[in-house]
Write a structure and sequence with these properties.
Elements (H helix, E strand, L loop, with lengths): L9 H4 L5 H4 L3 H11 L38 H10 L3 H27 L1
Length: 115
């Protein structure tokens, strides 16, 4: 039996375009060739240069791929998460990520001491 993909991640939902959709016409090719030697106007203020990076957020648009699994959690722990948040699964994932990050830092410290 073949396991079906849930296609829940954006990457899994992407599909290839048909060749007929991506074929360039002669008119399109001429337009592209005319643009080839065009000077780019960098004075436009639509995208100003960023000089202050203090409020920049690393990984703002990063979305990790999710995997569906079955996990057994104590009933009281599950009820607590359900009572605390409507999106309790996201909260459980956040708690697991914080735990993982904390322990990764601890492992790096231990490895660094032994070097």
């Amino acid at each position: 039996m073949v396991k079906k993909s849930s296609a829940s991640s954006r990457q899994e939902r992407l599909h290839r375009a048909k060749p007929s959709v991506t074929t360039l016409t002669e008119k399109m090719i001429k337009e592209l060739k005319s643009l080839k030697n065009r000077e780019i106007d960098l004075s436009d203020q639509d995208a100003p240069e960023i000089t202050n990076w203090e409020e920049a957020v690393v990984g703002k648009f990063y979305r990790p791929i999710k995997k569906q699994i079955t996990v057994r959690i104590d009933a009281d722990v599950l009820e607590w998460f359900r009572d605390v948040a409507e999106k309790y699964q996201t909260l459980i994932n956040t708690a697991c990520r914080e735990y993982m990050t904390h322990h990764q830092k601890q492992l790096k410290k231990i490895k660094h001491k032994h070097l």
